[in-house]
Amino acid sequence: QKEVEQNSGPLSVPEGAIASLNCTYSDRGSQSFFWYRQYSGKSPELIMSIYSNGDKEDGRFTAQLNKASQYVSLLIRDSQPSDSATYLCAVTGAGGADGLTFGKGTHLIIQP
Amino acid sequence: EPEVTQTPSHQVTQMGQEVILRCVPISNHLYFYWYRQILGQKVEFLVSFYNNEISEKSEIFDDQFSVERPDGSNFTLKIRSTKLEDSAMYFCASTPGGTYSGNTIYFGEGSWLTVV
Asked: Span B57-70, mean pLDDT?
């Protein structure tokens, strides 16, 4: 059974600092990796997607993928109070219609 | 920006009743999904739908559940004989070309189902 593991937190980070979120996954066949942000009672919102080993940067966000270690991370630079949310790691396989397997999410709190 | 729309936003139903949750995916998208999230728990995949048939389903998606695309725009999830444990937020999602590289998965705002 596919599993995605995340530290549930809460992870408390001062405003302006770097927030580091981590995720491991069990299925070595996973091909696509996503980070979503979810506010309480709302739907997941895509932050980053990554498909190959290495780093991918988009604004203040950097996703890192290491398939050998089955590890995905998300760095948020210059953290803002509005970044406070639950961050969900999700992975999927090689098939186009494969469903996403989500982790339980890490609750991030940015302290002003 | 295009969006996935879901109705109703909230529905309360009695145990044993049938519920239909409706979704309008983004118009040029080809892959459709249903997910659910029980309060305080993780988002769980239910089913994917492509080319007018189910492509993949999870263990959760048993005979109690069915999906349908009755016309060119709507995508529905039917839950027969609802149980208390079906209480959850149900999310519809769509993507133009599946989860392949470069395709964004768009989630609707969700339908909150409460079974009493």
From this structure: 95
